[in-house]
Amino acid sequence: xxxxxxxxxxxxxxxxxxxxxxxxxxxxxxxxxxxxxxxxxxxxxxxxxxxxxxxxxxxxxxxxxxxxxxxxxxxxxxxxxxxxxxxxxxxxxxxxxxxxxxxxxxxxxxxxxxxxxxxxxxxxxxxxxxxxxxxxxxxxxxxxxxxxxxxxxxxxxxxxxxxxxxxxxxxxxxxxxxxxxxxxxxxxxxxxxxxxxxxxxxxxxxxxxxxxxxxxxxxxxxxxxxxxxxxxxxxxxxxxxxxxxxxxxxxxxxxxxxxxxxxxxxxxxxxxxxxxxxxxxxxxxxxxxxxxxxxxxxxxxxxxxx
Length: 306
Ligand code: SAM
Fold this sequence. Notes:
The chain is of the alpha/beta class and about 300 residues long. The protein folds into 2 domains: about 5-60, Roll (Spermidine Synthase, Chain: A, domain 2); about 65-290, Vaccinia Virus protein VP39 (Rossmann fold), CATH 3.40.50. Helix content is about 30%, strand content about 30%.
């Protein structure tokens, strides 16, 4: 008989006083790269799970929920059917994969600083990238995404920021600031849209999400927060779509379903008109916290997660 004692457990502290545990079936790979500690474990509930510096990044079972929520609200808020996309971070390649599902995409670039993480994901998480790195439309670069954005003059219809949290000494600290979001805005086409994962939206832990939201409002005319429950994280998760023109909160369920049919030709597993309405209708206490936040994150005063 299988009991909790049959397993070793992985413990992820969600906050300093709370956490979530996952039984481990096996450790697929573990490595210390130049930038971070990486593990892929297999769990009974979620299949393979990618963990960086002790934080769960994504799981096989909820891959479609997390990555569809991250990508499609922005792809559907791009004024024209998007022809180009940029992934900032992106490790496992699932974000890249979702962008490549649009037949209008001619070019998709992924810039992840950690080539070792990407190589190990290519080898051990084929279920997630599903060949996205080999698609002739895709290009993968291994460098700091901020440096890349500063140097390139290319414009993209869609940019998504799929980064690890800004841990102290981690590689992503200066990619959550007003200066960085200004660079992102300037690399978007005039009708372009961006999305990002913006941390948890659980009660008592809204400061990260609301500070990012406040910071983006300094930079973009349209900033639309939304959330989705990610069960393997053990908490609802916040995302934000920011655009120069289209407001996703004004796209009704029928419009989203029509856009998915027109732009993608095939339905998604998680995102549709109803999911869109649900996600963008954030609850009252989160709206209140978002309105009340005054902190603008800057290079001089970056946001650091402890
Ligand atoms: N899905 C995950 C989540 O939000 O929970 C995050 C996806 S992905 C694994 C995050 C990636 O960001 C990592 O592979 C990491 O190497 C990359 N990254 C961190 N700092 C970066 C930087 N400065 N430039 C480019 N990529 C960076």
